Amino acid sequence: MNAFIVDTHCDSVKWLAQGVSLRNHPGHLDLTRLNSAVKLQFFAMFVESSYKPQRAMERTLELIDLSLQSMEQNKDVLTMVNTREDLQQLTTAKTCGALLAIEGGEAIIDTYMVRHLFRLGVRSIGLTWNQRNRLADGVLGGSGGLTQLGKKVVKEMNALGILVDAAHMSPKSFWDVLRTSSQPIIVSHANCRALCDHVRNLTDLQIKTLAAQDGVFCLTFAPDFLKENGSTIDDLLDHIAYAADLIGPEHIGIGSDFDGVDSLPEGLKGVEDYYKIYQGLEQRGFSESECQAISGGNVRKLLMRILPKEVGKS
């Protein structure tokens, strides 16, 4: 397997907040295993409910600071990706790329905060977690959509070169984002509602419309999103194959949710098992180029379109 693997979601920053190094630890992902398995990892800054809403920005800044410190301490295996040039250099680099992502926009009360987050290196923002905030309704937070501030934030992200992530959003919020964004978006970690009727999964219409606007649908390893009672790696492959039949392999990616779930599908223990997904796709008849596109090529292509060419310039 020789693929540029991109994982659009992990929650491993939580270990840093608990005083645990990312270098080596027993979770789903650590830097030692990551560097031999993945070429670009999105690291989510998830703000726990106890900090919302009053201390959301404080906690977000703390998590970003911990992440930046960890990257500096581990720069022999990890390189921060801020620009298209950074992404291009990963192709020949011996390190894994790290992209800072926000999961839930509770910290954002004005567009100037988006600009500050950009300056700190944030390159992907999920506007909601499950609940409602100032930007939009989450999947469990009501039936509303993007607020006026939410629309301004999406447009600011487009202008700066920050990827818009519609995971966790209510259906109306999802559609509002597609109507508002001038750039393609991603859904960083979800699966197919047709195969598993979970509220966080996308309907066929959502998946088709996301793809029609050149977005990327990133499938996740969360067991509850794969099958109602128990799941295996084959169930994950079923979701990938179903989505590929629906929209083609050129709009599919992977967002594991490593360290954000209590368990993984049978057959997956952690980031060291990524090769099994690639092999499983090959065994199901996907070509080498299709496997490479799904494993990371599609997200990489989108980032080359979205990210600024250099810091401060689009």
Automatic annotation (TrEMBL):
Pfam families: Peptidase_M19
CDD domains linked to this entry: rDP_like (cd01301)
GO MF term set: metallodipeptidase activity
Identification of the protein by name: Dipeptidase
Gene3D superfamilies the UniProt entry points to: Metal-dependent hydrolases
GO biological process: proteolysis
Classification via InterPro entries: Metal_Hydrolase (IPR032466), Pept_M19 (IPR008257)
